[in-house]
Amino acid sequence: MIIGYNDDFFYFRIVKKNGSVSNFRIPEIYTDFKEKNTISNSIDYQCEILLQSNILLDICNEFKAFKEETLIIQTDRTSVAFKIKDPLVYAETILENKKTNDFYISNKNNLNLEFKVKYFLNIGTIVKKININECLLQIGQNLPLSLVFSISSESSFQFYLAPLLTN
C-alpha cells in the first residue's frame, strides 16, 4: 500500500497479490494534514469499539437526512448509542455488546460526545467505496474520534474526526 497527500486529498494505491492495482483519492475531512502528525499514538482512549464496516455504513445511511445536525455518541459499559440532535425529529441507533453480531466494546468511562453529522457521513462514503473489513472507533473525552479502518490483514488507515466543543 502506498499513501500520499496533496491539495487536501489523500491518495492510496493498493497493489494486490493477483497483480491488480487499486487507486483511491479521498478528500481530507478532519483537520489540516500537518496537525495530524502532532496526534500522539499513546493517547489513552476511554472507549474502543470494534465493528464490522457494514454496521458503520448502516448507521451512516440511517442518518443521511440529518447532515446539517449534530451527532451525539454516548457510551456506557455495554453499549454505544448514535443519536441525532434535531429540534423536530429523534433518531437513534444503539449497539449493545453481545446482542449485536460483529460488535465489541471496551469502555472505561461513560462518554457523551458531539460531532457534525456531515463529516461523519463522509466516513460512510469512504467505507462504501473501499473494501473495508472492520473498523475500530476510539473515543475519548475532549479527543478526536479515531477511526482505524482495516483493509486487509496487512493494511489499514486512520481518520480523525474532531468533536464539537461545548462550554
Automatic annotation (TrEMBL):
Q: Give one GO term, molecular function aspect.
A: DNA polymerase processivity factor activity
Q: Name one GO cellular component term.
A: PCNA complex
Outline the extent of the Proliferating cell nuclear antigen PCNA C-terminal domain. Answer: 42-163
Listed InterPro entries: DNA_clamp_sf, Pr_cel_nuc_antig_C
Q: Which SUPFAM superfamilies match?
A: DNA clamp
**What's one Pfam family here?**
PCNA_C
Annotated GO biological processes are: leading strand elongation; mismatch repair; regulation of DNA replication; translesion synthesis
Stated name of the protein: Proliferating cell nuclear antigen PCNA C-terminal domain-containing protein
